[in-house]
Amino acid sequence: IRYWSNIPFITMPLSRAHGKSFAHRSELKHAKRIVVKLGSAVVTRGDECGLALGRLASIVEQVSMLQNQGREMMIVTSGAVAFGKQRLRHEILLSQSVRQALHSGQSQLKDMAIPVLEARACAAAGQSGLMALYEAMFTQYSICAAQILVTNLDFHDEQKRRNLNGTLHELLRMNIVPIINTNDAVVPPPEPNSDLQGVNVISVKDNDSLAARLAVEMKTDLLIVLSDVEGLFDSPPGSDDAKLIDIFYPGDQQSVTFGTKSRVGMGGMEAKVKAALWALQGGTSVVIANGTHPKISGHVITDIVEGKKVGTFFSEVKPAGPTVEQQAEMARAGGRTLAALQPEQRAEIIYHLADLLTDQREEILLANKKDLEEAENKGRLALPLLKRLSLSTSKLNSLAIGLRQIAASSQDSVGRVIRRTRIAKDLDLEQVTVPIGVLLVIFESRPDCLPQVSALAIASGNGLLLKGGKEAAHSNQILHHLTQEALSMHGVRDAVQLVNTREEVEDLCRLDKLIDLIIPRGSSQLVRNIQKAAKGIPVMGHSEGICHVYVDTDASVEKVTRIIRDSKCEYPAACNALETLLIHRDLLRTPLFDQIIDMLRVEQVKIHAGPKFASYLTFSPSEVKSLRTEYGDLECCIEVVDSVQEAVEHVHKYGSSHTDVIITENEKTAEFFLQHVDSACVFWNASTRFSDGYRFGLGAEVGISTSRIHARGPVGIEGLLTTKWLLRGDNHVVSDFSEHGSMKYLHESLPLPQRNAS
């Protein structure tokens, strides 16, 4: 490192020592100095004459946002030639029209041919206008921009390199955004540069290598290359088998087939990759992404800096295991093999997993103890979540019992015929159950969820991706290992995958071509985030568990306190725990009401008063902030209603369609409640805590769904199946069934095959 004008610069880019590039996308949020390279296809309009002003304004807004966060932003831009071409064409047309009008004296002009415009002349005409546009846009965000024009020779001349380096550092020090472009008006013929192994460092043909060279010279943390494709594909984009490469590693070039370059610009993807690898070797992280897509261009730069899965990320650190995309493909292949097994074989796998849970309980509990100790030491989990995280011998025994129930009930789940129809003579139609495909189950603080969900996926023949919370990492690891051990007995080890990479949940939710259904298991906030992030993938679950118990005037004194205590106090962190207690107005100031309040106080339940309840009291508990609150702890709201009808209306207005209960001895009132409450589970004289797959006899559940399509309530094996149609014919064609055809539709219902009695 030498010094010039008190500013350090590097004479040999590849020997600099500012540190290694980031190993993972999640680290990109720490990038301080960033170069954004805007390709010609990003900056110019589709007709290649003029600039894409809306797109450019969005890019300037994102760069300004990052600059105002304290980052040092630089832009390498194309567009001068396109902008100049637009101006020159306008001038030529105007000039021709004037001359033609003077020459002919006619008001009607003939078609005029526009000569081919030389690129250097276009650049000369466009540079000032392009910079004026950038300045006007950045001014809107109180940011100053400065233009720097360079040529290839500026990097070969030692003094010019020093000057360029010093100028850029001084601009960054003053919080100015440098906008760098090749001086295309005077650019000499391209010269090869050994540093880039044949790729021209900077020339009119290649702004990519200019950005790479600049990024390395300036010790930049991140180089973002925006083009008109999503990133790097393993074959030319648009071809049938082309797949976007999420992470590209040095040495992977042989596995990539490059296509043609973009409609404008001179680089092409091969040049981008070579430049990116050169920058990566120099210690700068690189992402190549699409800057033209209307749905993502408005936030593509900020998404990349936040570590989101956008474009292709270049990394020198290759993970030891498979990528999440590879895991999803393995799960799909394994799931299909699993579905093809005999029902008895799938049941054997689940029975074996149940045995392993009890046989290996010491190892499981030891791993769980590590998770609990780490969580307590870091203090990052609330008490309800710590309870969910904790495993015990009794929990493992209950898990094993539940798994055996699943195994017993799975004998005829896949391939069961649910409808048979004779369409015509020798033309029979069947509707049969089949797996959904690949499930993504995201859960937090619930390691017991892993074997439950795995068993249900195995029973239903689905491939499974599991993403557990890092607070349960040790527990999840051993439970997944035992699951794969059980799967190995019939050669389907890969059907259940545990995602251990640093994938963000939001990125997993974008894998719509690999995942068929997302099932979140956790807090209401987690479920809401996943429902918001899911792109084209259905989400099964409930965002909240706001469960009600309504105490009617005809309620039994003996039943009321038992059911309320069990619903609220047995496991207050559960999604099926009581959150709002509705009391009929006539029960206020009665012995029954006093018993309810005394019981809640003994159980140390904090009471919040609904607005109507508070109006009846001189000294009331704290008034509830919202009647749509899921406390998840020893807290609940009490509200007063005038009738069962008002109770139903309250549930519909403030509930989450999860589980709601009526306590009454009046059968007519109970039936009204059962029929009119529109929730997934509605009970009469029973605790809300019965809303559970194990208690329903499903063995276990992947979750409780409050949606109205496909599955609702506790979701067991049946909820993880869909159907397909099988039609068996003998040379049948539709034309035979026309008005003058030889065949007629019968549409006769046929008896279903006998179900397996076991």
Automatic annotation (TrEMBL):
Q: Name the Gene Ontology molecular function terms of this record.
A: ATP binding; glutamate 5-kinase activity; glutamate-5-semialdehyde dehydrogenase activity
What Gene3D superfamilies does the annotation carry?
Answer: Acetylglutamate kinase-like (3.40.1160.10), Aldehyde Dehydrogenase, Chain A, domain 1 (3.40.605.10), Aldehyde Dehydrogenase, Chain A, domain 2 (3.40.309.10)
Residue ranges constituting the Aldehyde dehydrogenase domain according to the UniProt record: 323-588
User: Catalyses which reaction?
Assistant: L-glutamate 5-semialdehyde + phosphate + NADP(+) = L-glutamyl 5-phosphate + NADPH + H(+); L-glutamate + ATP = L-glutamyl 5-phosphate + ADP
Name of the protein in its database record? Delta-1-pyrroline-5-carboxylate synthase
Q: Could you tell me which pathway this protein works in?
A: Amino-acid biosynthesis; L-proline biosynthesis; L-glutamate 5-semialdehyde from L-glutamate: step 1/2; Amino-acid biosynthesis; L-proline biosynthesis; L-glutamate 5-semialdehyde from L-glutamate: step 2/2
UniProt lists the family membership as follows: In the N-terminal section; belongs to the glutamate 5-kinase family.
Q: Which InterPro entries match?
A: AceGlu_kinase-like_sf (IPR036393), Ald_DH/histidinol_DH (IPR016161), Ald_DH_C (IPR016163), Ald_DH_N (IPR016162), Aldehyde_DH_dom (IPR015590), Asp/Glu/Uridylate_kinase (IPR001048), G5K_ProBA (IPR041744), Glu/AcGlu_kinase (IPR001057)
Q: Describe the location of the Aspartate/glutamate/uridylate kinase domain by residue ranges.
A: 32-290
Source taxonomy:
Eukaryota, Metazoa, Chordata, Craniata, Vertebrata
GO cellular component annotations of the record: mitochondrial matrix
Q: Which SUPFAM superfamilies does its entry note?
A: ALDH-like (SSF53720), Carbamate kinase-like (SSF53633)
Subcellular location per UniProt equals: Mitochondrion matrix
Summarizing the function annotation, the protein's role is:
Bifunctional enzyme that converts glutamate to glutamate 5-semialdehyde, an intermediate in the biosynthesis of proline, ornithine and arginine.
The entry's keywords: Amino-acid biosynthesis, ATP-binding, Kinase, Mitochondrion, Multifunctional enzyme, NADP, Nucleotide-binding, Oxidoreductase, Proline biosynthesis, Transferase
Q: What is its main location?
A: mitochondrion
GO BP terms: namely: L-proline biosynthetic process
* E.C. designation(s): 1.2.1.41, 2.7.2.11
The organism's place on the tree of life at top rank: Eukaryota
UniProt entry tagged with the keyword Metal-binding: no
Which Pfam family, any one, appears in the UniProt record?
Aldedh
Q: How does it assemble?
A: Can form homodimers/multimers.
